[in-house]
Amino acid sequence: MFPQLAAALASVGALALPTSCAACGTPDDTVCRGCTEAIAAGLWPGPRAVTPTPCPEGMPVAFAAGPYEGPLARLVTAYKDDGRRDVRPVLAPVLSTALDLALRSQPEHRRALAKDTRPVLVVPVPTSRAARRRRGDAPLLDLARAAASGFAGHELWCADALRLRRRVADQAGLTARERRLNLEHAIEPRPRWADSLSGAPCVLVDDVLTTGATLVEARRALLRAGAVSVVAATLCATARRHPQPAAGASGLGP
């Protein structure tokens, strides 16, 4: 009964509260046509390998769909921090393209998908309990689930497998060194995922790649838990990153 009630309330809310573009504020559209076209035009021709500068030790191979700028950047912020969960259907396919390339970039992931011997784990980077309480949900986890669900015929598990083991400062405004120290040994696996992580190929998911500190620490936690290979996929990368074209392959796209 609860899902039906939630859907009914959402419909009523849509009538009571006018919809506006989450990127520019234009009324009547969740994402207006102009912003949709600008996002499509601003994405790279295909997801690219992105490397932080400077590149931290332990940085996983990472892929992003486009640069963190313009309407896409505003949409990511609106989704995560402004409660605009209605834009998830717009962001999920963008993340899926980077996830697709990440899956095909590593031999262990390709073998797991081809043989279906065990699922590939799609692991969002963890958020703090305070952030979850403030937002009322876990937007990155929900986005990762939506992106992973587009891969029909392949067993991907979206695994909320990591958590913060201590309090960390807000990363915004910190230098690369400060971010690294802030997160050092701050991430650990959730105990209930210990058996699933052992021997599993994993894809870390984040919304924006900035300095790479979060991905480095999350990769370390997964490897210590026994993951055999860890690669990363993000929606976008900041201007600090140096994107490099990455060769693609067919057959696994959503």
Walk me through the structure.
- By secondary structure, this protein is of the alpha/beta class.
- The chain has a single domain, classed as 3-Layer(aba) Sandwich (Rossmann fold), CATH 3.40.50.
- The protein has 10 helices and 9 strands.
- The strands form 2 sheets. Strands 4-3-7-8-2-1-9 form a 7-stranded mixed sheet.
- Helix 4 crosses helix 7 (139-148).
- The two termini are 31 Å apart.
- Residues 1-16 and 247-254 have low confidence and may be disordered.
Q: Provide the domain count.
A: 1
Q: Return the CATH architecture.
A: 3-Layer(aba) Sandwich
Strand order of the largest sheet: 4-3-7-8-2-1-9
Shape, please? globular
Strands, total number: 9
Helix content, binned percent: 40-55%
Q: CATH topology, anyone?
A: Rossmann fold
Model regions low in confidence, pLDDT < 50 over at least 5 residues = 1-16, 247-254
Q: Largest beta sheet, briefly?
A: 7 strands, mixed
What is the average of the pLDDT values? Answer: 82
Structural class: alpha/beta
SS strand fraction: 15-25%
Question: Span between N and C termini?
Answer: 31 Å
Order of helices and strands: HHEEHHHEHHEEHEHEHEE
Total of DSSP H or I helical runs spanning 4+ residues: 10
What is the CATH C level class, in words? Alpha Beta
Cα radius of gyration in angstroms:
18 Å
